[in-house]
Amino acid sequence: MPVDDSALDLLFRDARTPARWTGEPVSEETLRTLYDLLKMAPTSGNCSPGRFVFLTTQDAKERLRPALSEGNVEKALAAPVVVIVAHDPLFFDQLSYLNPEPDLRSWFAADVGLSEETAFRNGSLQGAYLILAARALGLDALPMSGFDGALVEDTFLASDGWRANFLICLGHGEPLDTSRAARLQFDEACRLL
């Protein structure tokens, strides 16, 4: 059954990207619930390459500062949580656990291009699912690019070999103007064939 209008409003129609944060903290329990929701969303072959680093302390966010473009510094440092949405290029090492298809690992281990494309695409999907899960839990989300990916990887991801994709600031946004920037209409963005 489809969800009701109030759920659609929460997830899409009334949701806005915050400009400022209230300062209300986000608990570790909420972040664990967030992950438990997003991990249930589909990825191709259940490959689940998304990896998430939750920066919850001011010290961790300060370590991110040098990698941020100038326009993102204040937004990120003020957010209660900044999530580094990454992917594991060696996601296929988990496939024997995640997918019963025999020898699926070898498809990706033998083809670096295929494995990188699969990891990036499905890790991006998982980052989008994180935004929806955050909204479903009453959090606001501010996705951002505008950072030095290599520096983020060197600072936070090198020990695991993960690759940075984008950032998401999480928290409770201050009430803001409810106007919304323009969106393309169906006939401008879609084709029915």
From TrEMBL:
Keywords from the UniProt entry: Oxidoreductase
Domain of life of the organism encoding this protein: Bacteria
One Pfam family, short name: Nitroreductase
Gene3D superfamilies per the UniProt record, alphabetical: NADH Oxidase
Enzyme Commission number(s) of this protein: 1.1.1.298
Statement: the UniProt record of this protein carries the keyword Oxidoreductase: yes
Keyword Oxidoreductase belongs to the record: yes
GO molecular function, one term: 3-hydroxypropionate dehydrogenase (NADP+) activity
Residues annotated as domain Nitroreductase: 22-172
UniProt-listed InterPro entries: Nitroreductase (IPR029479), Nitroreductase-like (IPR000415), Nitroreductase_HadB/RutE (IPR050461)
NCBIfam families: PRK05365.1
Protein name as it appears in the record: Malonic semialdehyde reductase
Organism this protein belongs to: Acetobacter sacchari
